[in-house]
Amino acid sequence: MKPTVLIIDDDEAVLDQLKWALADEYEVLLAKDRPSAIETFRARRPDLALLDLGLPPLPNDPREGMAALADMRNLDRHAKVIVISGLSGKETAARAVGEGACDFLLKPVQIDSLKLLLSHCRHVVTLKREYEEIRQHTEVEPFELLQSRSPRMEELLENIRKVATAEAPVLILGESGTGKDVVALAIHRQSGRRVGPFVKLNCDMASESLLESELFGREDDARSDGASAEGRLESASGGSLFLQDVGDLPLRSQVRLMRLIGERVADGVKERPSGETAPRLIAASSKDLTVAIAKGNFIEGLYYRLAVLVIRVPALRDRKEDIRQLAEAFLKRFAAQFDRPNLQFDSEALRALDRHAWPGNLRELENCVRRAAIMSDTDILRADDLGLTPSHAQPAAAGLREARQSAERAVIIGALRKHHGKITAAAMELGISRPTFYSLMEKLGIERRSLIWDHSEETSEE
User: Taking the model in full, what pTM does it have?
Assistant: First the structure.
């Protein structure tokens, strides 16, 4: 059976050329825009994808392509996406790789080079999936993001051990980027369901219909090109279902999920008619769900069904003694990934890491180290390679709360000014989501139009 490759490009000639070149070795799927690409990706789960960043309705801007990359990575974290684009520039390439693309090629691409790269990526994704299968049946696993010298993290690890042995639903709370998905996986790995599947679903998908079909499955699969109608709830049977960003679940889906929990889960487990056990639910949110309930955006009954056991994940600024250890772990990983075994931080870079406020938490730290590993011209990473300026440091004379807010404000304002008020670009640079960026602006009282830049460069959608 041939491996599948999804080619996403709005240029008919490029699609024809690449399909002709690859058809002997791959089953080729085609898409001309982001919506059709994501629907095809969801239905067919291709082994590889070739993505043009300049997609309609913004053919001269990488944002639509970057959004498509993020959507595919949300659907399958093992997805190997190669960016092939005419939108050149070192910054664009770094952003694409930093957001999960496995490589970046400029048009026109050399077909022989592309075939070699596809072959390598196909081999890597096969190894990763096999490794993941092995890990599903491994009792103990080191989680680098949980490495810690912090008392707050020691408390978290103890709580993970306690809730893992229970069968009740778990709600994991914490800021965006703190590693809630790693905590969920750790709970599953230490539970009696560790031999079963760990199935993840991001609830912040832009399309409500796509989210519904992913969670509950399709009642009529006649239009799904032969794809299975099974949803994540079904595929997680006997294991754990992790609902990430559950606060973004649409109200209609909340009602269906609440009803389903009431019917199928009693004291954690209830036998299904087929004899399979219903999945254990693990949910996570960076939003204050009690506020969402008060605003009518989250159903109180669902909250209490999910929040039987609650775990809170500390922000990176509350475990600053772990920053260097985590940064070194990330650097070791990327040094191996990019075949640069001698990469190391110099002393000033380490001090810059300590001083930074890290509003994007672990995700921001990981992206920061990845960018430095990619972009640095030497094996010694300096403070300049990290892109962390002194304005990000916390003022020593201020109180802790004031210092933290001052640092966060400086980061947000700096990113907004750099990108002329464009929220998506600013959030992407900081390694946080748009909703988190907006939330920080609101919390810190930052008004975009009160800042200085050429407002004619803003886009209407931002």
Answer: 0.54
